[in-house]
Design goal:
alpha/beta; D-Maltodextrin-Binding Protein, domain 2; 2 domains; six-stranded mixed sheet; five-stranded mixed sheet; 10 helices; 11 strands
Length: about 270
């Protein structure tokens, strides 16, 4: 049997989902590769992967995207690992470096700058080592585990999960499990069950993982900052976010994300 090629983000926030996969019988049917978010998106887009935990900003660029799981990487407020850092308030920033690991967070930054903060600093696609450029009037968008170490380094830190929630009153979805081709229904059921089991096993998982820094509370991070269920409010938030990006959703995405009665609301 040909294995299903799966690409997933390698950050700490995905560990419960990956733990569910490796403990499940579906692991034998999967060829799993771990990548940064932008590479996950590229692999799904160019056919190197059949299924991926990908940044949601890439969804409209895929030919036939389908969200295949009831689980995601989301937040109900603060997310802790998607932040703009700086030495001055965002209203005073003249330049913001945009993390090259990200697509969704970059798009979210642009939405918030335009519609929420209503400022227009110069945005620079960053290169490796750009964190060293943060200072004075230059801020930086930093995502993933690197953000843990920067939390206490700068006097101003804007958590984009929290800022989106303050702006819209909704949660946010950063990444979702997406396929670009039909997958067997029994596999999808097993995959969804694996996700649920991985989240249920968080109390066990935290004893197996090293903390990213001294004093870091893994239990709190997985249960208070990351929200894994792709519920109705998150689906609504995702529809709103994609609408703000001026994207027309492919029919396959509409069908997998929203019940027919809700599609017209977005």
């Amino acid at each position: 049997m040909t294995k299903i090629k799966v690409t997933a983000v390698s950050y700490l926030n995905t560990k419960p989902l990956l733990y569910g996969i490796v403990k499940s019988s579906i692991a034998q049917h999967i060829d799993l590769q771990l990548d940064i978010p932008s590479v996950c998106a590229d692999k799904l887009q160019n056919g190197q992967a059949d299924l991926g935990l990908v940044p949601v900003a890439v969804l409209p660029k895929l030919s036939t995207p389908q969200i295949i799981s009831d689980f995601c990487i989301g937040s109900e407020g603060k997310v802790k690992t998607v932040c703009i850092f700086g030495e001055c308030p965002i209203e005073e920033m003249e330049t913001i470096y945009l993390d090259f690991h990200s697509r969704t967070s970059v798009a979210l930054t642009k939405v918030l700058l335009k519609e929420y903060w209503q400022v227009s600093p110069r945005l620079i696609p960053a290169q490796q080592g750009y964190e060293q450029q943060i200072g004075e009037k230059s801020g930086g968008l930093v995502i993933g585990d690197r953000a843990f170490e920067m939390g206490n380094k700068y006097p101003f830190a804007y958590d984009l999960g929290e800022e989106w929630s303050l702006f819209t009153g909704l949660p946010f979805v950063f990444a979702a499990w997406v396929s670009t081709r039909p997958l067997d229904s029994s596999f999808l059921e097993g995959f969804n069950n694996a996700m649920a089991q991985g989240i249920a096993d968080i109390p066990q998982l935290i004893y197996l993982l090293p903390a990213p820094m001294h004093g870091f509370d893994l239990q709190s991070y997985f249960t208070e900052y990351i929200s894994y269920d792709l519920n109705d409010k998150k689906r609504k938030a995702l529809g709103l976010f994609l609408k703000k990006l001026n994207h027309n959703l492919p029919q396959s995405l509409n069908e997998s994300l929203f019940p027919p009665s809700q599609v017209s609301n977005f």
